[in-house]
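input
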Amino acid sequence: MKKSMMAVAVGLAMAGWALPALAAGQVVISQVYGGGGNSGATLRNDFIELFNRGDTAVSLDGWSVQYASASGSSWQKTALSGSLQPGQYYLVQQAVGAGGSQNLPTPDAIGTLTLSATAGKVALVGNNTLLACGSSCALTASVIDFVGFGSANNAEGASAPAPSNTLAVLRAGSGCKDSNNNSIDFSTGFPVPRNSASTFTVCDTSGGGGTNPGPQLARIHDIQGNAHVSPLKGSAVSKVPGIVTVLMGNGFFMQDPHPDSDPATSEGIFVYTAAAPAVQVGDAVEVSGLVSEYRPGGSGGAANLSTTEITAPSVAVISSGNALPPAVVIGQSGRMPPTGTIYAGSGDVETLGALNVTANALDFYESLEGMRIEIDAPVTVGPTSGDELVVLPDGGSWSTNRTGRGGVVIAAGDYNPERVVISRGTVTPPPANVGDTFGRIVGVLDYASGSYKLMATEISGFVDQGLQPETTRAQVASELAVASFNLENLAATDAQSKFDGLAQQIVKRLNTPDLIGVMEVQDNDGAASSGNVDASQTIAKLVQTIQQQGGPQYLFVSIDPQDGQDGGEPGGNIRQGFLYNPARVSFVGKAGGSATNPVSVLNNAGVPALSFNPGRIDPTNTVFANSRKPLAAEFSFNGQRLFLIANHLNAKSTDQPLFGRFQPPLLSTEPKRIQQAEVVAGFVSTLLAVDPQTKVVVLGDMNDYEFSATLDRFKNVGLSDLVETLPKSERYTYVYGGNSQVLDHILVSQSLAGKAEYDVVHVNSEFANQNSDHEPEVARLSLPLPVNLSSGFSWQASGLSYNRASGLYQGNITLTAKIAATGPFALALGTLPSGVTLANATATVAGLPAIKLPGSLAVGESVTVPVQFKNPTAAKLGYSVYVYGGL
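output
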């Protein structure tokens, strides 16, 4: 602050010049940072921070902050507005850089000035007129405050020291010190951006000079408080005691060995040093610095919880070699977490007040943030992936929803918050499968990627419990085995070992299904963005490997997508398709569709058919933009026609996390997934409208649960979700975050529901070594070849009458058994004239419209069957009568 400000203002006022209300000596520039987004920087943006060190409010309306290079006279500005209360900070965000991982706190003003990281000049100006000075700006009448730093050619007194990509210049006394000499008032330190919502700092200005009473003495539980955000956020704290528990590359965790009695206040905290810390585990330290809330995930982590930290620290080592504070046990011998409710309220939990650690799992883990935690007798429920696995305490003995193979399955409203994610700390979790056990695991509780994670410092007593992959039984001759299998981005460029593993699962574990709907088949060059969409080499390699493993020579039908239009891994052009065994299944031959030409349902005299085979369902509908298009195909088995639809619906990738700040989490991907399901369900309805007995199988990666609104759309048109035929403990095709869950489904129309046997074959998702992240599933459909019993019956048709009200021709056919016939059997009609349909058909048998008949007939016994015909052209009616059994 310029010493002569009042004298200059008075002189100018006496000369009749109009002056802004400058409130001399009050508002100062308290921090300048120009390294935002530069190499090594954590923050993405440059910023200028202001502070009201006086005792009255000041209006900033009409003011500006301005910047010029170290030797320049060309100034740029950012306009200001609002009122600044005594002790309040004001954050002016400036240009964003290419690097960094953390956003600034919510700024009070936003500009686009690109500041130098090492040298420059910043002026707080009482108007919006650009300065025109170079080396003599500090005493300009309109300048409220001025800071030159580094090699700047102008400053108040001498320049402040040069900052860097990782250091700011900060005014001493939390902004209170103002001797009118930048070299005395400023020093370099880690940037600590404070906005108008930060804790106020009251300055002691007695004696004419600005001083600060000093940072607040506090313990860790005072800093953490009993809510999700520290009550001391933005405040300077001093001599916070703790024992160093874990070292990180950019800081350390410490814990108070003398906790308070409040279970809602954590005793652990992270100290952010930016570089490798100069302390050791076991050191007793006192830390002074600024309390901050760090939100992991950068720009993509807005829904993550924040974690409390001490930043810009000074660390004093008091003693070394101290015992670590005792770990808090989660489980029967310590603190029990809620097992059903993640959070009972709604909204942003960081604004909803005090923690409820007995009711809300989110609050329970928040109360342990940064502390040493012990898990006794942990059992693995999520296999090792990368450097993480997921466990339940106490062998999972008090957890609900356990699977028979050691995992834990989700249920509507229960996502098993008792799970604990174990991540790499000073030790790395070993490769572990679901069901494997440990003696104990100790670590420090952190938060990242939308979940609390225990960074392991001790893992002992690992026991491989020998989980084995499953094998489903082979289908018999009268059963059609239909499988669904997400191959997880299979491309011809993948290692042969992946093809070997998938082929072995198909041949040995699935017992070579007759039809396999496959998802995530990539083009020949995989993720390379070459414009290629052909997947023939990928499929040829898979089919050849299946043969080498002893399987059949499958044929493949699919439609190549347009380049880059179906989502998934960029460049991969994933698609669905069908592998089928031609020795068992016939593909109904006709021209196939294209990537953009929609398939439709034809009505061939009451028998449905596809306009293309295969064909994509409504591929240009916007609900399938950047997403996989459903693929419909028509097959025949034992003389019975089936329609299969392979799906890969919108992924859950951008949903808010279960353990995020917003509760309940926003499922942003769900509306699109529901709309996609509605399109497919509408197509199924069209098939069933032609013939309600049409055999339809809808399968694939639906990316949603059996109790979801997405799957309800399919059930609403009469499809049965076969996974619901299993006990609840067996309903899972995927393991994510330790939660076993259903994402893959096989649904069938009512004509097949009573003929289906279903199995999820657990070969992948429970294992650390996986060929795919999904489990295959198999439905065996009992579709025996109809037996022609026509020679064992005589038949007689009555005359036909026309019913004007219904528009139908109606009559009777009487069948008389010449042999003993065991039902059920069916009366089928052939050689109907073109355009004539059997209106009361209840089935299609051997490709003919038919009426199913229950019961059995003895020799000489008769049954009269009513028949109704639609005959819109009044053609001469004639037909052949067949009787089929073995249904």
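quick obs: The longest strand covers residues 236-248.
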